[in-house]
Amino acid sequence: GENVEQHPSTLSVQEGDSAVIKCTYSDSASNYFPWYKQELGKRPQLIIDIRSNVGEKKDQRIAVTLNKTAKHFSLHITETQPEDSAVYFCNAGGTSYGKLTFGQGTILTVHP
Amino acid sequence: NAGVTQTPKFQVLKTGQSMTLQCAQDMNHEYMSWYRQDPGMGLRLIHYSVGAGITDQGEVPNGYNVSRSTTEDFPLRLLSAAPSQTSVYFCASSYSGAGTGELFFGEGSRLTVL
Fold it and tell me: Does the first or last residue of chain A, that is N or C, have fewer Cβ atoms within 10 Å of its Cβ?
């Protein structure tokens, strides 16, 4: 099945800086790449996703880029704010029918 | 539209006791799944179902049973609880069992096994 590796496991930035989290995947047939944000004590929620026919997608301060050749995709958060502090998870879907596994998660801390 | 509803939110068990975590969704999703989340371990898939009457094992299925008699419900059963099952459990559903659509999560159930 699909194997997803996520880095870094923790990331600390100052407010206003940019943050980048990267995920690599193993199955070149994967075609859907979502990112989930989980605030402390809350459920994970989708914040942005990208499909394999697109190289980049932006939504205000967040963006996701996809490099299919290298089999990695990244979450970019610009102008970080304290409310961006959370755990972020990536996922690669479309090949392991039903067996949807996540990256290990990145704890992002934004210092005011 | 309630989305994904999990009960109970909190539960304390003694070793060897059994219990069922309930999960229901009202979005007519074919795909449902259970994850456990431990500190530093991320979300690990326990069991999943791609439709009524169909279930399969995830990454960490031992000690857990599931059934899917209806599209709406996907209960998770612990037959003989162990301290290693102390965790936060999330139920999730999606219109896509192929992993090509958004996963909607329940609020989570915090289980402590003494």
Answer: C
> Which among B94, B113, B112, B95 has a CA at the least distance from the CA of B45?
B94
Cβ within 8 Å, pair A34-B103 = yes
| pLDDT tens by residue, B25-77 | 999 999 999 999 998 778 999 999 999 999 999 999 999 999 999 999 999 99
- Measured in degrees and rounded to the nearest 5, phi and psi for residue B109 equal -130, 120
A&B contacts, CB < 8 Å: 70
Which of A89, A92, A95 shows the shortest C-beta gap to B42?
A: A89
Q: Which two tokens stand for residue B15?
A: 């070793």
Across the beta sheet with B76-78, the strand order is B4-7, B19-25, B76-78, B64-66
Contact between residue A78 and residue A71 where contact means Cβ atoms under 8 Å apart = no
Q: What is the pLDDT of residues A30-64, one digit of tens each?
A: 889 999 999 999 999 999 999 988 899 999 999 99
Token representation of residue B113: 């096994």
**Contact of B59 with B44, CB cutoff 8 Å:** yes
